[in-house]
Design goal:
By secondary structure, the chain is of the alpha/beta class. The protein has one domain: Acetylglutamate kinase-like (Carbamate kinase). A nine-stranded mixed sheet has the order 4-3-5-2-1-6-10-11-9, with helices on both faces. β1, α1 and β2 form a beta-alpha-beta unit. α1 packs across α3 and α5 runs parallel beside α7. The model has no long low-confidence stretch (mean pLDDT 93).
Length: 241
């Protein structure tokens, strides 16, 4: 039996949506699902990879939806940022129950429950083997957690951004209900933008392009998928120039 392929990256960002924590529920947190994702993160951490995380807040509150229902956009976005802090704390609790030291780092100071974002301190946490979960987006309204993940990945000098989704890569159309949907093994940033593919929002893709940050789109529902890609296995799409 051949030995596994060496780990490809030394430091990575994992971006997942808040909806990924819902499981089969229509709202909120599903603890068994949070635990399953935490175990995926632990398996990569055990390889010696330094891990950053950003988790969306759509399972609790989505600022854009609130704005569409009559809320003032800035206020709605701040509510969404607070939802990401709740998700980050839940993931921290689950990771630490598995023996993985974790720090929640918020773009909006709330000293009683997490650390404020200080780049050099966050880098030091990573160097000490702690998982850093970046919460509250960028701290500014009108920016998504996709953009926050790309920004923090760039600031932390991550070698790739892993986007965990419900499908195993980027398709030219929704693979659910479209049997002829084509999956890309590799696609450029500009193709994602010009073809309006639903990978991440345009500002996140542009920021990744400007910093030559590879985006790996994979299925978070595939057991061992995150760890498998780092070993050179599995199905995924690589977005790069």
């Amino acid at each position: 039996m051949e030995p596994p392929t060496p780990v490809t990256y030394r430091r990575v960002m994992l971006k997942i949506s808040g909806e990924a924590l819902m499981g089969d529920q229509g709202y909120g947190l599903h603890p068994p699902t949070v635990k399953r994702i935490a175990e995926e993160v632990k398996s990569v951490h055990d390889l010696g990879v330094e891990i950053c995380m950003v988790i969306g807040g759509g399972n609790i509150f989505r600022g854009l939806s609130g704005s569409a229902q009559g809320m003032e956009r800035t206020q709605a976005d701040y509510m969404g940022m607070l939802a990401t802090v709740m998700n980050a704390l839940a993931m921290q609790s689950m990771l630490e129950s598995l023996g993985v030291y974790t720090r929640v780092i918020s773009a909006i100071p709330m000293d009683q429950i997490c650390e404020p974002y200080i780049r050099r301190r966050a880098v030091r946490h990573l160097e000490k083997g702690r998982v850093c979960i970046f919460a509250a987006g960028t701290g500014n309204p009108y920016f998504t957690t996709d953009t926050a993940a790309t920004l923090r990945a760039s600031e932390m000098a991550c070698e790739a951004l892993f986007k965990g989704t419900k499908v195993d890569g980027v398709y030219d159309k929704d693979p659910v209900g479209n049997a002829d949907a084509k999956r890309y093994d590799h696609i450029t940033y500009d193709e994602v933008l010009t073809k309006h593919l639903n990978v991440m929002d345009a500002s996140a893709i542009a920021l990744a392009r400007d910093n030559d940050l590879p985006i790996i789109v994979f299925s978070l529902d595939e057991p061992g998928g995150f760890c498998g890609i780092l070993r050179g296995e599995g199905t995924y799409t690589r977005v790069q120039g």
